[in-house]
Amino acid sequence: MSNKEYQDYVEGKAAKSPLALDMLKAFAIGGLICVIGQGIMSAAMAAGLPKNDAGTVTTIALVGLSALLTGLNLYSKIARHGGAGTLVPVTGFANAVVSPAIDFRSEGFVTGMAAKMFQVAGPVIVFGTLASAVYGVVLLALSAM
Questions:
Q1: Tens digit of pLDDT per residue, the chain (145 long)?
Q2: I need a labelling partner for 67 at 20 to 30 A (CA). Which of 13, 51, 77, 105 fits?
Q3: pTM of the entire structure?
Q4: How many CA atoms lie within 13 A of 30 on its CB side?
């Protein structure tokens, strides 16, 4: 069987994804995550926190909630239906860090959990740090002009 024949065979067997329904679910789940975040922020501001502090509380709460749902094996069930909608940056990143840590905990604390925890998230952290340093230097250079 040639590569082309095999590819045609696989495409024939693969289930077609209902694109419109998948996009609607992603929009709804992602929107729900954002609504929860806005609710947390509004509650923090109603409690008297300034907007910046309320944003920090919101981020911490969303990361904690995402980590908890990942640990309880619920985040993956939500992601199964919400697809890309669960990749809202804060919650998706927290899930990307916690999930490998849980999967590899049996290999030990350092060589399993700690090492694998940043396998997915590590490049994002490195790129984010490097990009922020480059943007800072560019901003400093532009402000000196």
A1: 888 888 888 888 887 888 899 999 999 999 999 999 999 999 999 999 999 999 999 999 999 999 899 889 899 899 988 888 888 878 887 887 787 777 776 777 666 666 676 676 777 777 777 888 999 999 999 998 8
A2: 51
A3: 0.69
A4: 14
